[in-house]
Amino acid sequence: MTGAGGWLGAKCTPMPQVFLSAACFSSPPVHPTTTSRLAFSSYSSLLRKSITSSPTLKTTSIMTKRMKATSNFQLPTLADLCDDNVNSPTRLSVVEPGLFFQFGKLPRFYGQIQTVRCFESNPTVREVLSSPGYHQVLVVDGGGSKRVAIMGDQIAKLAVENNWAGVIVNGCIRDSAIINELNIGVRALGTHPVKSLKTYPGEKNAKCNFGGVEFVAGQWVYVDEDGILVSETPLHGHENVNRLVGVI
């Protein structure tokens, strides 16, 4: 390799010259991992901005704040509410007395109404109580049937876990001994040991009529030892709750 004809004696082709400006050395090179971190940081910042500006998230945040505020709000008795609002233009309706029995650990509860209408079949009741309740009250119109139970302890536990204030059932419940140990308010026509069917889905947000009162989703219901009161608008102190969470 070092003799004649070897590479040392061969004619070499010069490499092209590359001229680098001083700007190329103004900052140290960035490692690929660092570049990825910078890109991820920028992406995370944009993602946080897009999430926090989401109307859905803002609504959920307001509902969560309202739930915490209302859960700590001390409700006056129904007698006081009726006295305070006897001359109010808001229409108040009282459920016919003597129809409903008290269950659950909470003798007093209140909240905005959500409704389910079904008959001896409860899959929609389970579906609704499996979703966030935001301290609302589910009104279940079971047609007044006393042949089966519309709600048992498993569904009642779902209501507690998902922050429902209470359930009013125009029908029967079962597992009452367990439900009576749960931190929720329940009213029902009585108890029955037989579970309901799972065949018919029922109807959400339907107008329900029983006990001489119309229950409409979005209106308000108040319950204590004296009975059940329905109002088209929130009563006594709810403006303070809304102001507390920044709604008004």
Describe the structure.
The protein is of the alpha/beta class and 248 residues long. 29% of the residues lie in helices and 23% in strands. The protein has seven helices and twelve strands. Strands 1, 2, 3, 4, 5, 6, 7, 8, 11 and 12 form a ten-stranded mixed beta sheet that branches. Strands 9-10 form a two-stranded antiparallel ribbon. The longest helix is centred in the N-terminal third of the chain and has 21 residues, at 32-52. The chain is globular.
Write the layout of secondary structure elements.
Layout: H1 32-52, H2 55-71, H3 78-84, E1 92-94, E2 101-103, E3 109-117, H4 123-129, E4 137-141, E5 149-151, H5 153-161, E6 166-173, H6 176-179, E7 185-191, E8 203-204, E9 208-210, E10 213-215, E11 220-224, E12 227-231, H7 238-244
Parallel strand pairs: 3-4, 4-6, 5-6, 6-7
Antiparallel strand pairs: 1-12, 2-7, 3-8, 3-11, 9-10, 11-12
